[in-house]
Amino acid sequence: MADLSAFPITRKWPVEDPTKLQLFSYPTPNGQKVSCMLEETGLPYEAHRVTLEDANVRSPEFLSLNPNNKIPAIIDPDGPGGQPLALFESGAILLYLAEKTGMFLGATPADRMTVIQWVMWQMGGLGPMLGQMGFFVKFAGKDIEDPRPRERFVTEAKRLLNVLDTRLEGREWVAGEYSIADMAIGPWLGTLDFYGAKPLVGWDGLVNVPAYVDRFFARPAAQAAKNIPPR
């Protein structure tokens, strides 16, 4: 049995079963990605609720696992060579879990690269741009009088949504078969309701994205991930 006591984070979030993968997360879009993957694969895991408050994500215990002070992060007691592996960054965790299980990463080398390509698109584009737009539409940024920051991120969000809309023409899932690319993208599209931003980004003019979102959240794992760990 793996001994996870060497990881300082376990002092603040105690481990009940050290044989299970340990998830330290909160059900934001980035957190939902990994929870969705764990639910889809059926890997045994233990979820620890790490709120976004400084007392949690900036605590010495959490920073010992993720120096970038962002959720999610994991400890896999059965990592490469049978040794525990600590990992942060949602995209990296998705890739790791896909390689570990042999699931949701495409059937061929070419498929694999297509999946990775769209994971990177989400990590570098869709997620950051929708997050920044949300700041200027719903949170503190909405009180800034200068309209240019808001306009910049709304415009870029529209562009990215249209890229996705075009990609989905004739496709059920973004990389062919359902994959970690969809698990990366779907939760971020779900933020548009929360931000109240659908009219701003021209949601009703999108042909393929709305049905894609419905398909994604119709999956039990995607629904469950909305509340893992429970808020």
From TrEMBL:
Lineage: superkingdom: Bacteria
Keyword Transferase included in the entry's annotation: yes
GO molecular function: transferase activity
Keyword entries, A-Z: Transferase
Ranges for domain GST N-terminal: 18-105
Stretches assigned to the GST C-terminal domain: 108-231
PROSITE patterns with a match to the protein in the record: GST_CTER, GST_NTER
Cited PANTHER family: DISULFIDE-BOND OXIDOREDUCTASE YFCG, GLUTATHIONE S-TRANSFERASE-RELATED
Similarity field: Belongs to the GST superfamily.
Name listed for the protein in its UniProt record: Glutathione S-transferase
Source organism: Rubellimicrobium rubrum
Higher taxonomy: Bacteria, Pseudomonadati, Pseudomonadota, Alphaproteobacteria, Rhodobacterales
